[in-house]
Amino acid sequence: MTRPLPLAVTLGDPAGVGPELVAEIRSRSEELGLPPFVVVGDGAQGFTPGAPDRASAQFARQSLEQALAMVLDGECRGVVTGPVSKSGIAAIDAGFVGQTEFCADACGVERDAAVMMLAGPSLRTVPMTVHCSLSEVPSRLSHDLIVHRTRIVARAMHTDFGIANPRIAIAGLNPHAGEDGRMGREEIDIIAPAIVTLRAEGIDATGPHPADTLFAPHKRSTYDVAIAMYHDQALVPLKTLDFDEGVNVTLGLPIVRTSPDHGTAFDIAGKGIARPDAMIAAIRMAGEIAARRAALA
Description:
Isopropylmalate Dehydrogenase, 11 helices
Protein backbone atom coordinates (compact mmCIF):
# COMPACT_ATOMS: atom_id res chain seq x y z
CA MET A 1 0.00 0.00 0.00
CA THR A 2 1.32 3.43 -0.94
CA ARG A 3 2.03 5.61 2.06
CA PRO A 4 -0.07 8.79 1.88
CA LEU A 5 1.59 12.14 1.43
CA PRO A 6 2.30 13.94 4.70
CA LEU A 7 0.42 16.90 6.07
CA ALA A 8 2.26 20.21 6.43
CA VAL A 9 2.04 21.47 10.04
CA THR A 10 3.11 25.02 10.85
CA LEU A 11 4.28 26.20 14.25
CA GLY A 12 2.34 29.44 14.12
CA ASP A 13 3.89 32.33 16.04
CA PRO A 14 7.09 30.91 17.57
CA ALA A 15 6.61 33.08 20.67
CA GLY A 16 3.33 31.30 21.39
CA VAL A 17 2.50 27.75 22.45
CA GLY A 18 2.68 26.31 18.90
CA PRO A 19 6.30 25.10 18.99
CA GLU A 20 6.00 23.28 22.31
CA LEU A 21 2.71 21.64 21.29
CA VAL A 22 4.07 20.44 17.95
CA ALA A 23 7.28 19.19 19.58
CA GLU A 24 5.29 17.13 22.08
CA ILE A 25 2.97 15.76 19.43
CA ARG A 26 5.81 14.84 17.09
CA SER A 27 7.47 12.85 19.87
CA ARG A 28 4.19 10.98 20.48
CA SER A 29 2.84 10.76 16.92
CA GLU A 30 3.18 6.99 16.63
CA GLU A 31 1.61 6.45 20.05
CA LEU A 32 -1.26 8.77 19.07
CA GLY A 33 -1.77 7.06 15.72
CA LEU A 34 -1.58 10.32 13.80
CA PRO A 35 -1.24 10.57 10.03
CA PRO A 36 2.26 11.41 8.73
CA PHE A 37 3.19 15.07 8.85
CA VAL A 38 6.15 17.36 8.35
CA VAL A 39 6.79 20.46 10.43
CA VAL A 40 7.17 23.72 8.52
CA GLY A 41 9.19 26.37 10.31
CA ASP A 42 11.09 23.82 12.35
CA GLY A 43 13.88 26.26 13.13
CA ALA A 44 12.15 28.45 15.68
CA GLN A 45 15.09 28.67 18.07
CA GLY A 46 15.95 32.17 19.17
CA PHE A 47 12.45 33.41 19.85
CA THR A 48 11.41 34.10 23.43
CA PRO A 49 8.22 32.39 24.61
CA GLY A 50 5.61 34.96 25.54
CA ALA A 51 7.45 37.83 23.84
CA PRO A 52 6.10 38.24 20.30
CA ASP A 53 7.75 40.78 18.02
CA ARG A 54 7.99 41.67 14.34
CA ALA A 55 10.44 38.84 13.73
CA SER A 56 8.13 36.21 15.22
CA ALA A 57 5.22 37.55 13.15
CA GLN A 58 7.36 37.40 10.01
CA PHE A 59 8.37 33.83 10.85
CA ALA A 60 4.70 32.86 11.25
CA ARG A 61 3.70 34.43 7.94
CA GLN A 62 6.58 32.87 6.01
CA SER A 63 5.89 29.44 7.49
CA LEU A 64 2.24 29.68 6.46
CA GLU A 65 3.19 30.74 2.95
CA GLN A 66 5.71 27.90 2.64
CA ALA A 67 3.27 25.27 3.92
CA LEU A 68 0.58 26.35 1.47
CA ALA A 69 3.08 26.22 -1.39
CA MET A 70 4.01 22.66 -0.40
CA VAL A 71 0.35 21.60 -0.54
CA LEU A 72 -0.40 23.42 -3.78
CA ASP A 73 2.73 21.91 -5.36
CA GLY A 74 1.57 18.40 -4.45
CA GLU A 75 4.27 17.72 -1.85
CA CYS A 76 1.74 17.51 1.02
CA ARG A 77 -1.94 16.60 1.15
CA GLY A 78 -3.16 19.26 3.56
CA VAL A 79 -2.06 22.00 5.92
CA VAL A 80 -2.54 22.29 9.68
CA THR A 81 -1.81 25.81 10.84
CA GLY A 82 -0.52 26.69 14.29
CA PRO A 83 -1.98 29.72 16.09
CA VAL A 84 -0.79 33.16 15.02
CA SER A 85 -1.29 36.72 16.20
CA LYS A 86 -3.53 38.43 13.63
CA SER A 87 -2.51 41.86 14.85
CA GLY A 88 1.17 40.88 14.80
CA ILE A 89 1.09 39.78 11.16
CA ALA A 90 -1.15 42.71 10.19
CA ALA A 91 1.57 45.04 11.51
CA ILE A 92 3.95 43.72 8.84
CA ASP A 93 1.31 42.89 6.21
CA ALA A 94 -1.55 45.38 6.13
CA GLY A 95 -3.66 43.09 3.95
CA PHE A 96 -3.63 40.22 6.45
CA VAL A 97 -7.05 39.53 7.99
CA GLY A 98 -6.57 35.98 9.20
CA GLN A 99 -5.20 32.59 8.19
CA THR A 100 -8.53 31.57 6.61
CA GLU A 101 -8.45 34.54 4.25
CA PHE A 102 -4.71 34.04 3.59
CA CYS A 103 -5.39 30.44 2.56
CA ALA A 104 -8.24 31.53 0.29
CA ASP A 105 -6.01 34.09 -1.44
CA ALA A 106 -3.24 31.52 -1.93
CA CYS A 107 -5.73 29.11 -3.51
CA GLY A 108 -7.27 31.74 -5.77
CA VAL A 109 -10.62 31.40 -4.01
CA GLU A 110 -12.90 34.34 -3.18
CA ARG A 111 -12.77 35.05 0.53
CA ASP A 112 -16.56 34.66 0.88
CA ALA A 113 -16.19 31.12 -0.44
CA ALA A 114 -13.72 30.15 2.32
CA VAL A 115 -16.05 29.19 5.14
CA MET A 116 -14.84 28.76 8.71
CA MET A 117 -16.28 25.78 10.54
CA LEU A 118 -15.57 25.03 14.19
CA ALA A 119 -15.79 21.31 14.83
CA GLY A 120 -15.59 19.37 18.07
CA PRO A 121 -16.86 16.10 19.51
CA SER A 122 -20.13 17.77 20.63
CA LEU A 123 -20.83 20.37 17.97
CA ARG A 124 -20.08 21.70 14.50
CA THR A 125 -20.89 25.34 13.92
CA VAL A 126 -20.29 27.95 11.22
CA PRO A 127 -20.39 31.74 11.75
CA MET A 128 -21.96 33.53 8.78
CA THR A 129 -19.99 36.70 9.53
CA VAL A 130 -16.61 36.51 11.21
CA HIS A 131 -14.06 39.24 11.87
CA CYS A 132 -16.16 42.38 12.08
CA SER A 133 -17.73 44.44 14.85
CA LEU A 134 -21.11 43.37 16.17
CA SER A 135 -22.61 46.62 14.88
CA GLU A 136 -21.66 45.65 11.31
CA VAL A 137 -23.32 42.22 11.35
CA PRO A 138 -26.87 43.21 10.28
CA SER A 139 -25.62 45.14 7.25
CA ARG A 140 -23.34 42.29 6.20
CA LEU A 141 -26.07 39.67 6.26
CA SER A 142 -27.93 39.04 3.03
CA HIS A 143 -30.06 36.36 1.40
CA ASP A 144 -27.30 35.63 -1.13
CA LEU A 145 -24.57 35.40 1.51
CA ILE A 146 -26.50 32.88 3.60
CA VAL A 147 -27.44 30.79 0.56
CA HIS A 148 -23.93 30.86 -0.91
CA ARG A 149 -22.10 29.91 2.26
CA THR A 150 -24.66 27.30 3.35
CA ARG A 151 -24.32 25.59 -0.03
CA ILE A 152 -20.58 25.34 0.62
CA VAL A 153 -21.24 23.89 4.07
CA ALA A 154 -23.68 21.30 2.71
CA ARG A 155 -21.22 20.21 0.02
CA ALA A 156 -18.32 20.00 2.48
CA MET A 157 -20.32 17.98 4.98
CA HIS A 158 -20.52 15.33 2.26
CA THR A 159 -17.00 15.51 0.84
CA ASP A 160 -15.13 16.22 4.08
CA PHE A 161 -17.25 14.61 6.79
CA GLY A 162 -18.99 11.79 4.95
CA ILE A 163 -22.55 12.97 5.62
CA ALA A 164 -24.52 12.63 2.39
CA ASN A 165 -27.61 14.59 3.44
CA PRO A 166 -26.58 16.87 6.29
CA ARG A 167 -29.15 18.44 8.59
CA ILE A 168 -28.36 22.15 8.83
CA ALA A 169 -29.89 24.28 11.59
CA ILE A 170 -29.79 28.02 10.92
CA ALA A 171 -29.92 30.41 13.85
CA GLY A 172 -31.73 33.72 13.95
CA LEU A 173 -29.87 36.96 14.55
CA ASN A 174 -32.11 38.59 17.15
CA PRO A 175 -33.31 37.40 20.58
CA HIS A 176 -36.01 34.74 20.23
CA ALA A 177 -35.33 34.75 16.45
CA GLY A 178 -36.96 38.17 16.25
CA GLU A 179 -40.33 37.16 17.75
CA ASP A 180 -42.25 37.71 14.51
CA GLY A 181 -40.59 41.06 13.89
CA ARG A 182 -41.01 42.55 17.34
CA MET A 183 -37.27 42.30 18.01
CA GLY A 184 -35.96 42.85 14.49
CA ARG A 185 -36.86 41.89 10.93
CA GLU A 186 -33.69 40.14 9.75
CA GLU A 187 -35.30 36.74 10.29
CA ILE A 188 -38.36 37.71 8.20
CA ASP A 189 -36.60 39.69 5.48
CA ILE A 190 -33.30 37.81 5.06
CA ILE A 191 -32.85 34.53 6.94
CA ALA A 192 -36.20 32.81 6.37
CA PRO A 193 -36.23 33.55 2.60
CA ALA A 194 -32.70 32.14 2.35
CA ILE A 195 -33.87 28.95 4.04
CA VAL A 196 -36.74 28.67 1.56
CA THR A 197 -34.25 28.94 -1.30
CA LEU A 198 -31.96 26.30 0.22
CA ARG A 199 -34.81 23.87 0.85
CA ALA A 200 -36.00 24.31 -2.74
CA GLU A 201 -32.52 23.11 -3.80
CA GLY A 202 -32.88 19.96 -1.70
CA ILE A 203 -30.71 21.13 1.21
CA ASP A 204 -32.13 20.11 4.60
CA ALA A 205 -31.96 23.55 6.22
CA THR A 206 -34.26 24.55 9.07
CA GLY A 207 -34.84 27.73 11.05
CA PRO A 208 -34.47 30.49 11.89
CA HIS A 209 -33.96 28.95 15.32
CA PRO A 210 -33.63 31.02 18.52
CA ALA A 211 -29.92 30.92 19.30
CA ASP A 212 -30.45 30.72 23.06
CA THR A 213 -31.91 27.19 22.76
CA LEU A 214 -30.21 25.92 19.60
CA PHE A 215 -27.16 24.58 21.44
CA ALA A 216 -28.99 22.78 24.26
CA PRO A 217 -28.24 19.03 24.42
CA HIS A 218 -31.66 17.93 23.16
CA LYS A 219 -31.38 20.32 20.20
CA ARG A 220 -27.84 19.34 19.18
CA SER A 221 -29.01 15.82 18.40
CA THR A 222 -31.37 17.16 15.72
CA TYR A 223 -28.74 18.60 13.35
CA ASP A 224 -25.28 17.90 11.96
CA VAL A 225 -24.09 21.51 11.80
CA ALA A 226 -25.41 24.84 13.08
CA ILE A 227 -25.14 28.05 11.08
CA ALA A 228 -24.75 31.10 13.33
CA MET A 229 -25.07 34.72 12.24
CA TYR A 230 -21.94 36.10 13.88
CA HIS A 231 -18.62 35.12 15.44
CA ASP A 232 -19.47 34.77 19.12
CA GLN A 233 -22.86 33.18 18.46
CA ALA A 234 -20.92 30.29 16.94
CA LEU A 235 -17.72 30.23 18.98
CA VAL A 236 -19.08 30.66 22.51
CA PRO A 237 -20.99 27.33 22.51
CA LEU A 238 -18.18 25.51 20.69
CA LYS A 239 -15.52 26.70 23.10
CA THR A 240 -17.76 26.04 26.09
CA LEU A 241 -18.40 22.47 25.02
CA ASP A 242 -15.17 21.49 23.24
CA PHE A 243 -12.48 24.03 24.12
CA ASP A 244 -9.66 21.48 24.34
CA GLU A 245 -10.67 19.55 21.22
CA GLY A 246 -12.11 22.24 18.95
CA VAL A 247 -10.82 22.37 15.39
CA ASN A 248 -11.08 25.25 12.94
CA VAL A 249 -11.73 23.79 9.46
CA THR A 250 -11.76 25.89 6.31
CA LEU A 251 -14.48 24.68 3.96
CA GLY A 252 -14.69 25.58 0.29
CA LEU A 253 -10.98 25.37 -0.52
CA PRO A 254 -9.40 23.02 -3.07
CA ILE A 255 -6.96 21.99 -0.31
CA VAL A 256 -7.44 20.63 3.20
CA ARG A 257 -6.81 23.15 5.97
CA THR A 258 -7.41 22.77 9.70
CA SER A 259 -6.16 24.55 12.80
CA PRO A 260 -6.57 24.18 16.56
CA ASP A 261 -9.38 26.43 17.76
CA HIS A 262 -7.29 28.34 20.26
CA GLY A 263 -4.91 31.25 20.11
CA THR A 264 -1.22 31.77 20.67
CA ALA A 265 -1.59 31.77 24.49
CA PHE A 266 1.45 34.02 24.90
CA ASP A 267 0.70 34.21 28.63
CA ILE A 268 1.48 30.52 29.19
CA ALA A 269 4.00 29.94 26.38
CA GLY A 270 7.12 28.11 27.53
CA LYS A 271 5.61 27.07 30.87
CA GLY A 272 4.85 23.51 29.80
CA ILE A 273 1.18 23.69 30.74
CA ALA A 274 -0.45 24.13 27.32
CA ARG A 275 -2.61 21.16 26.34
CA PRO A 276 -1.98 19.58 22.93
CA ASP A 277 -5.49 18.12 22.50
CA ALA A 278 -6.78 20.66 19.96
CA MET A 279 -3.65 20.43 17.80
CA ILE A 280 -3.85 16.63 17.93
CA ALA A 281 -7.50 16.84 16.87
CA ALA A 282 -6.62 19.25 14.04
CA ILE A 283 -3.93 16.92 12.66
CA ARG A 284 -6.18 13.88 12.95
CA MET A 285 -9.13 15.66 11.30
CA ALA A 286 -6.97 16.93 8.43
CA GLY A 287 -5.84 13.38 7.74
CA GLU A 288 -9.42 12.09 7.81
CA ILE A 289 -10.67 14.81 5.46
CA ALA A 290 -7.79 14.25 3.05
CA ALA A 291 -8.54 10.52 3.00
CA ARG A 292 -12.25 11.11 2.31
CA ARG A 293 -11.49 13.51 -0.53
CA ALA A 294 -9.04 11.04 -2.04
CA ALA A 295 -11.64 8.29 -1.90
CA LEU A 296 -14.14 10.48 -3.77
CA ALA A 297 -11.63 11.61 -6.40
